[in-house]
Design goal:
By secondary structure, the chain is α/β, with parallel strands linked by helices. It has 7 helices and 5 strands, in the order βαβαβααβαβαα. It starts with a strand and ends in a 13-residue tail after the last helix.
Length: 171
């Protein structure tokens, strides 16, 4: 059985709920098992839910521009909980101001995110790629109490410098 369980929510003090509900419906209609944590979710709550539900991915939404602050250390928290191979995605208006897309992507890639997407990106393409990546990574996602050693799983591969940083139309 494939693990298509994803944790979804809006991080930090962000209370933008409409997009979160749309994403929940979107991914559910495409066969993902969505655990929607709602709005104003702490990094710790994302990680705890991922461990509890044996999720394969965490998808974080941030629309109020403070995603970089709110997401600091999320990958480390996952690793500490033994979720080494879990895929991390973030999308929305991630920073305040007119920062070039490439700069924002690099910031979040350096923070351990596998996917970075922006308003207007092709969600159908993202869902297709996420499904493919989850199916490939299925046997590599670890959910253990102590951190497991890295074993070259897909999560490590996706975090490498050569992996794509976003999923715009045509990718």
């Amino acid at each position: 059985m494939s693990n298509l369980t994803i944790i979804l929510g809006v991080i930090g003090s962000d209370c933008h709920s409409v997009g979160n509900k749309i994403l929940d419906a979107f991914f559910t209609e495409r066969g993902f098992q969505v655990v929607n944590l709602g709005v104003m979710v702490s990094p710790e709550e994302f990680v705890a839910a991922a461990a509890e539900h044996h999720a394969a991915a965490i998808l974080v939404s941030s629309l109020y521009g403070h995603g970089e602050l709110d997401c600091a250390g999320l990958r480390d928290r996952c690793t500490h909980r033994g979720l080494d191979g879990i895929l991390l995605g973030i999308g929305g208006n991630l920073v305040v101001g007119k920062t070039p897309r490439e700069v924002v992507q690099e910031k979040f890639r350096a923070m351990g995110f596998d996917y970075v997407f922006f308003p207007g990106d092709d969600l159908e393409e993202f869902a297709r790629r996420l499904r493919e990546d989850l199916l490939k990574a299925e046997c590599h996602v670890t959910h253990v109490s102590p951190p497991a050693p890295h074993d070259g799983c897909l999560g490590d591969e996706l975090r490498s410098a050569s992996a794509p940083a976003t999923f715009a139309a045509g990718r």
